[in-house]
Predict the 3D structure of the following.
Amino acid sequence: MKWKIRQEADADIDAITDIVNRAFAGKAYAGGDEADILNGLRDGGGLVLSLVAVLKGNIIGQVALSPAKIGTQRYLCVGPLSVTPQHQGQGVGSALMGHALGVAQSLHRDGIVLAGDANYYARFGFEKAASVTHPGKLADHILVLPFTGAPAGGVTFHPAFNE
Ligand SMILES: CC(C)(COP(=O)(O)OP(=O)(O)OC[C@H]1O[C@@H](n2cnc3c(N)ncnc32)[C@H](O)[C@@H]1OP(=O)(O)O)[C@@H](O)C(=O)NCCC(=O)NCCS
């Protein structure tokens, strides 16, 4: 049986929190606050989209979109993105990203921005952009996928990211 992807429901929230914590546990790059960020986005009205992957009634992955800016351009931020350790490497993360990118394109923003590992996100078309700046510790990890033209300026994420 293959997983299905759908929007989150209120009843999923505890399971989503658990998945984010398990996926990021022990990762050198994890801040340990990824679940708090997601809950902060939800509570702060910053969740443009929250998708879950469901296998046999169990949530095995999640991805979120939130509003962001690069300069005055209207971007979306993708993340957190998590898949439970036992289901990684089976295409769940790619499928969640594919859905999220499709929705993002339909929302007529200027593009997508995230803070993450270029080795992973390059496969979806994300790249570094010298004209995009960030004042915080994430500066070296900012990746963009522009829809409308070259992005330029400082990145602003939703306050839930506690930059
Ligand atoms: C990153 C993550 C979401 C990918 O989910 P997934 O379901 O395993 O992804 P897929 O099965 O679609 O793709 C797996 C591919 O990604 C690669 N990959 C996974 N993490 C990677 C990383 N940090 N750097 C480079 N490649 C990575 C795997 O090597 C594999 O490559 P292949 O397709 O060439 O074999 C999942 O590993 C995860 O939850 N990791 C912990 C949390 C995290 O790092 N989230 C992303 C940062 S916000």
Remarks:
- The helical segments are 13-24, 34-43, 92-106, 118-121.
- The beta strands are 4-7, 49-55, 58-70, 73-83, 111-115, 132-133, 142-146, 153-156.
- The radius of gyration is 15 Å.
- The CA atoms of residues 22 and 30 lie 11 Å apart.
